[in-house]
Write a structure and sequence with these properties.
It is a single chain. It contains 20 helices and eight strands. The protein has 433 residues and is an alpha/beta fold. It has four domains: 65 residues, Serine Threonine Protein Phosphatase 5, Tetratricopeptide repeat (Alpha Horseshoe); 64 residues; 173 residues, Rossmann fold, CATH 3.40.50.300; 74 residues, Orthogonal Bundle (Helicase, Ruva Protein, domain 3). It has a six-stranded mixed sheet, sandwiched between helices. It is globular.
Length: 433
Amino acid sequence: MNYSHDIIALMEALKTSPDNTSIRHLLAQKLLQDGHIEAAEEHLHAIIQSDRNHLAAKVLLAEAFFKREKFSAIIVMAEELKEQDYLPFELKVWYAKALTKEGNLRDAQEMYAEILKDDKNFKDESLDSALRIKEYDILDQLEAEDSVFLEEADVNFSDVGGLDHVKKEIQLKIIKPLENPEIYKQYGKKIGGGILLYGPPGCGKTFIAKATAGEIKAKFINVSISDILDMYIGQSERNLAEVFSIARENKPCVVFFDEVDALGASRHSMINSAGKNIINQFLAELDGISSQNDGLLIVGATNTPWALDTAFRRPGRFDRIIFVPPPDVDARKNIFELALKDKPTVDIDFKKLAAHSEKYSGADINAVVDMAIEDKLEEALLSGETVPIATKDLLKAIKKHKPTTVDWFNVAKNYALYANQSGLYDDILKYMK
């Protein structure tokens, strides 16, 4: 192996003092700089094995993982530190980059926003080009600058496990009009519109919205509540208007509002006028009173459709309401396959896993896979070798993790039985039978 004089000197010093963590850390740093990544990893694993709280070593290890394209290993390590409420700035950067490489752009954007909050002068070309598309000022009175994140959707319906009836509805309402605009115009039907997805949490509402954008090769904007709500009077309405303005400038565009009930809760239950003003602004944007909404698909998702103001369900707004149930056995098998794709595995019985995960949401299944990965990653970090995931590891994780959909159905059942005059919740009753 061709080592520099500095590295050879550090190796000799380490032989004399093998327990000296500072020398080992400096050696790992030099090895990494010179491209000896595997050798650097070995020394970093040794440091962490003796001191699991050695953050500087973990930052270097994240860099080594990234260079060897071990993106999921960075994510697991960063999330473990995140749970302990301390994630070093440098590791946040590697975490954001790993999330981007894994295609988890929403979480990458949130981490990137946190990075910029920590250091407003931070610049990184790879993160900028992947995550920040357009900047705009929305807080003039505060002289602050913010960003709206537009995504190029990298998934389509083939990546979605199950949910065939949801795909069919979207095909009829969105994709067919875009493919046959002249026919729809002859009948006076506009291209675009609103769809409300409801069901238990973690069952793929966000994913199906993003897959819709990928299916029609449209831009995708994922709007969270924190993007809209603001403590200053009138600012929330301006934030909402800005999102729709950017979407109209980038047609065709899918705008996804998660937890839409937080923005569109029933006005009858509101005491202050601020919440009512946001709803009125939202309704005006959906109607496209001052602007043209052709080519926009507005997708709202909620776990509590009974909390949404009835005005949102009028024609021209969220006029298609679709129940998104937990995945069936075939879909669960597909989700396990997707979640374990490119992961080190051996002898995985996907049918068995699907049979043992009844009532599990897609998020539950991903949580199960993460739990199994964490156990194996701990073994791998100690041994320095890849330890594959087996069926028994996933079954063990399934036993530990209970499905989160059960509590939702307990609540939804009451609405379906006693507050279902319009037939809105018929699909819930049908599913529960």
